[in-house]
Amino acid sequence: MKAAAASAVLTLLITLSPTPAAAASGPAARVSSPDGRLTLAVGTTGGHLTYSVTRNGRTLVEPSKLGLRLTDGSTIGDAVSVTRATTRTRDDTWRPVWGADSVVRDHHRELTVGLRQADGRRFDLIVRAYDDGVAFRYRVPDQEGLRTLEIVDEVTEFALAGDPAAWWTPRSLAYDGDEQLWRATPYRAMGDTMTPATFRWGDGTHLSIHEADLVDYAAMTLVKADGRLRAALTPTPDRAAAVVTTTGRATPWRVLTVSRDAAGLVDSHLLENLNPPCTICQTDTSWISPTKYVGIWWALQHQQYTWEEGPRHGATTDRAKQYIDFAAAHRIGGVLTEGWNKGWEGSWADQSFTEPADDFDLEAVVAYGKSKGVEWVAHNETGASLDNYEAQIDAAFALYERLGVHYLKTGYVGQIPGQYTYSQRSVNHYRLVLEKAARHRINVVCHECVHATGEVRTFPNALSREAMRGQEYDAFSAGNTPEHTLTLPFTRMLSGPMDYTPGIMNILWDPQGFDRRVHTTVAKQLSYYVNYFSGVQMAADLPEHYAGTPGLPFVERVPARWDESRTLSAAVGDHLVTARRSGAEWYVGAMTGDRAQALRYRLDFLGRGDWVAESYTDAAATDYATDPTPLAVNRSLVTARDTFVAAMDRSGGQAVRFRPATRADRALPRYVEPRPRVTALDAPAAVESGDIVTITATVENRGTVPGGADVTMSAPGTSQTRYVRVDPRSTRTVRFQARLTGDGPVVVTVGGQRTTVRLLHTPGAVPAPANLTVTRFAGSVVALAWDPVPGASYQVFRRTADGVYGDPVATVPAGTTTYADSGVTVDTTYAYVVRAVVGAARSVPSNEVVQTTVPQPVTVTWRVRVPSTTPPADTVYMPGSLPELGPWDPGRVAMTRVGPDLWEVTLPVLEGTVVQYKYTRGSWETVEHWGEIVGTVNRVVTVTYGTTGVQLVDDTSLDPATPDAHEAVRAWIDIPG
């Protein structure tokens, strides 16, 4: 990879007299970014080597220790003397094979501090300062008495100043440790974390901690102690050293990406710049090409097919050809067929990566794809067995190269024997796969592997990787929150391209009836293709779910390769607007988190003249909770002077394609910016004092795309704001409710419109029920009670999702003053009022009560009957989706024998939890295997509170009519029935 501009390098050597660290403290050397805003100072504190970071004179990182702890008990970084300090400046550009931008500038100043310890050991601290961050690494030269490095851990600290907001995921060494929901807390309240971890100060400054150029080293996590974060290396379980390597090398960079706002984090190329240039670009790289792909993956996640061979095997020759036909018809470059190969039974750890399943003709499928211009994407699921994979990798990659296969998805489900997913051995394995893949002209998408560290510059065949909680969790768990999907771009995505598998059109598809859904609107799914940077983008839904959908044209046209990228607006966890250029066309993705909002963004990135804006936005009818699929598709002419609007529902979005207009486009309407306004107001002329009044406002949008605005209703003693979204050139009504009390007329104002309501005091009116209270609540029930009104029956009202009371949810007969609402869901806030009814008259509403349905713990007992052929000395275990069950550890939770062939285990579980589980005798080689309960098809139960908070899951039935999910175990995989 050649630099596009000459490099300007200035080197300055500063010679310092060796001074024992214990005899002097303070800064020894410093380096500032090219723009002078960021400064990293190196010094000593209490005999320890330290550093600090400031931006515009404000401290971001207070003096923090540096160093490496070795297995001999010593620390590189203690009792040091500074022997020299040299600086140099570099400013050049380089061209990625592919990336977010076609040209990347590498402009930094580098400081090398030579250090000597009291024991005579020598090492260097290398520091770089860029306008968008700082980084440092240790370089330990080969020297007498120090030929190898056996590093237990790092001393490296990150003592952040103040108490910034923090986004982090709990530190976990499990294989899916990165697959967690992101947490948002103050810095002081955060715990140990994975990286990247991101922070924001009150003035808008953002900082993210991560690492770069991770080679032959253990991955970094962060532990919290004494208010400071420390770099904690992933250990190797069977040895004291997390890292064993030679001297004469540098460690990975410790990186702090710093920007004035959230957008600056996303736009940074810092991690790539800290990696070496491309090592595989000396020959033809035309085979390295971003692409889109489809596959049976989403149906597998929903257990409609199986990975293993059998009657519901997904990866068959015929089905692969059907998907190839779909891909060819819709400009999609690849087809993935997970489960195409032998070895999916049991633990997945002994698969063959060259032998196809009996019903899959590998050569025929690849050839058929090539005849249609579609690549077959190979899939290698290692089952976490690195040794098995490495033993086959040369033969497998040679086979793929012979067939002309250029794309590979790897997986590492399970705990690697004797290792962690992020330990040194594992890190070296992932690099080995990239190297060998490059020799065979194969692009790699890696799932369940270590986080990216900018290595896509060095190995551009690393098209993407997972290393985060992706969209599959919406299929088999409570799912990903709207905030999670708006945190990923500012955390995980900073490390490199990520495969989130977007493109779901049938948002509410739940074929198993597990109350699962995708936690977005369709428009947000389309926005992912622009907002989430990846070298592969999946059209993840089923072909039949795309048929006839208005969003399919965008999926067809949006590219996977970009030439230029800009973040137009951003706030961590809240919203993101990204513009990317591919050739002559621009694409914009806008998305929001847990609140509906309208965002405005300028189109000054467009070139001269007219452009066609083809926009796909949440329609006025789109409702995240009940109807997330409607799309408003609009086409209009825009120029670079226009400001576009994305009016989005909760967890909603917008995707826009901008292309230069042609003469044929002259008939399109000129874009008009939506500016919703209230044009009419309606309210009752008179109501009883103390009643709840419905006020209806009509909102008009004269624009050519959906518009959104906050509309406020004001009346004496109350003010309410509703966000309303209106389709182009349409009107929409929005309702408010307010309890009006007093003696005279009341003026109600909405959006500049006014109306007056008279208040009545009718003699002998039915009195309102008093003392409405919540007597009991759980995640599935809210119980109410109130004082009686003589001779009255009652109407119970629950406030709807749009904030108003509509029809009563229940009518309670006279003599009863309680009601239990079981039509509620977990983690939702409800409001209630009750009216008394006597004859044809009814009262004004009671006092209002508000309750959030917090899930309650349920004592759940699982009872199972096992075959009489089960060895009497064996113990039955229950692995499953709960953390307490491993998750999915086949030998962690032992059950108790409670009778002949009967076993039980009792666990506390929150109500509403959907638990998937199986029974084993301690390993996946002894798992139950019968009926539908095979492979990845599991037993499942939804935990319900009921009336007592106790639940029995009875899996003892011998009746064949009982669903397999609750029938007794019929057979073990090693002991057939």
UniProtKB/TrEMBL annotation:
Residues in the signal sequence: 1-23
Limits of the Fibronectin type-III domain: 768-856
CBM20 domain boundaries: 852-958
Family matches, as PROSITE patterns: CBM20 (PS51166), FN3 (PS50853)
Catalytic activity: Endohydrolysis of (1->4)-alpha-D-glucosidic linkages in polysaccharides containing three or more (1->4)-alpha-linked D-glucose units
UniProt-listed Pfam families: CBM_20, GH97_C, GH97_N, Glyco_hydro_97
EC numbers for this chain: 3.2.1.1
GO terms of biological process kind: polysaccharide catabolic process
Keyword vocabulary terms for this entry: Carbohydrate metabolism, Glycosidase, Hydrolase, Polysaccharide degradation, Signal
Molecular functions (GO terms): alpha-amylase activity; starch binding
Protein name: alpha-amylase
Organism: Virgisporangium aurantiacum
